[in-house]
Structure formats: structure tokens, C-alpha cells
Amino acid sequence: xxxxxxxxxxxxxxxxxxxxxxxxxxxxxxxxxxxxxxxxxxxxxxxxxxxxxxxxxxxxxxxxxxxxxxxxxxxxxxxxxxxxxxxxxxxxxxxxxxxxxxxxxxxxxxxxxxxxxxxxxxxxxxxxxxxxxxxxxxxxxxxxxxxxxxxxxxxxxxxxxxxxxxxxxxxxxxxxxxxxxxxxxxxxxxxxxxxxxxxxxxxxxxxxxxxxxxxxxxxxxxxxxxxxxxxxxxxxxxxxxxxxxxxxxxxxxxxxxxxxxxxxxxxxxxxxxxxxxxxxxxxxxxxxxxxxxxxxxxxxxxxxxxxxxxxxxxxxxxxxxxxxx
Length: 325
Known about the structure:
Helices cover 79% and strands 0% of the residues. With 325 residues, the protein is mostly helical. Helix 2 (26-48) packs across helix 4 and helix 4 crosses helix 8 (166-190).
């Protein structure tokens, strides 16, 4: 639980970090983040001596293609987020991560042909109404929020297909990002526009720290993911946008007119419905698994179907269930 709180807490407080990197622009910060993230992850992999996945990955062109797509999408996500925070749009950025679960569900329906439960349909419809209300209030669609939500949802979808661990996946993605980012930084330096090394040692150290800021929450998240139930992680994920929202309102003093409050209220209502449905489904799944365990136990006493089929079926279901609902 502490690992999960640490991961989402750091992600929630990261808007405090990006303004410290001025006078560097968003693209320069993004390039440094990609370069130094590979350095940080490389050192972490060196410490744990986890290299066996690399040869296997290199033998799978389809996975390499998916990792390239993931790297491209997360680059877009990172870039928009850094720019939005340093341009005074922290609240709108937090909205993107609030509506991300709803966009993920919508992608599941559109791309994976998944079937939704009634409560999920209500949540998605409420989320869509929230976007309409916010668009009317802004006088335009909330593009920052939508771009962040869609890019991160697509990133999650691709990561699901790749099926790599958090540290390994970040290493592969930042390897794809490294050369373009390094090339941009070298070009920036040749133009005399780079702030790295020209704005003091403290500024250079902060730019280098972008790798640590990226890697540490991910390591914490990986540690939490294997120790706490998925339903708990699903609740913890809302901590990050809550912290971002509170920072935007209380620390950065961004405006919150009535129509924005109304839009956020609808989003929070949609997330409440989604969370209630997820917890109810998780309880039902646990009850079904308990019933199957009981059946399996009876099977060992000779009460199952001939040939032990009942016990075998239960074991297969439980094995699948350990990967989450």
C-alpha cells in the first residue's frame, strides 16, 4: 500500500517540479526527460541484473513495433503534460487523468469489441456529458484533457499487448526515444539555445533529475502492482489527478468558474459509478472463486465429476483469476 501511495503521490505532485526547469522550454525538458530516463533505468537494470528479456524482445518484430508505437504515444503525452503545467493549465491536465479510465473503457468497446455492463455505460455517458458541459464553459472542447486522456489510454492499450514489466518496458521505450531526443539536444546546443550548462549547475542537475523523477514512481508502481489487489490499485489511481487538481486550484490559483465545477462534478460522478461497479464485480468474482474452491475441495473427497473434472476446471479458473478480473 505504501508503494502504491508513493507512486501515485509522486505522480500527483510532479506539477511542482516542471516549473523549476524554466527557462528551459517544454520540448527541451521533454528531450532531457527521455535521455535521462534511459540513463536512470539502465542503472536500475544494472543493479538488479535483469537483462534476459532483451534478446527475446529483439527476436519479436511485432513487439518491437508495438514498443515504438508506445514510445511515440507516451512522448506526445509527456510533451503535452509538461507544456500544460508550465503554461498554467494544471487543472485541465488533471481532468485528462480523471477521464482517462472512461476513455480506456470507450476504446475497449470501439477497438476490442468489449461488452459493457449497464453501470459502465452510465459512467461513460456521464463522462461524455461532462466533456460537453466543459466545452460549453470553455467555449471550446477541453483539448488538453482529451489529448492527455486519449494518448494515455492508447498507451495503456499498447502496453497490454506488449506485456513487459514496468522497468523493462520503460527501458525499451526510452531506447526508442533516446537518439531523436539526444539529436535534438545536440542541435539545440549547436544553435546556442540550450539551457543545459548555460543556466548554472543547479539547473543542469534539475534537468538530469528528470530521469529519476520518471523512473522512481514507476518502480514504486511495479512493486505495488505485485503486492496489492487490482481493485485497490484502481482506487489509488485517482490520487494523482486529485493532487494535481488541488495544486492547480490552491497552489497555482487557476480559475474555477461554475461551469468548470459542474463539469468536474459530472466526471467525479462518473468515476464514482465506475468504482462502485468495479468493487461490486470484484466482490462477486471473489464469491464465485470461493464457491469453486469449495467444489474443488469436495472433489478431493470423491464428490466431483468422474475423472476429477470438477477439480481440474476449478484449478484452471483460479489460475486465470490470479491475473486479475
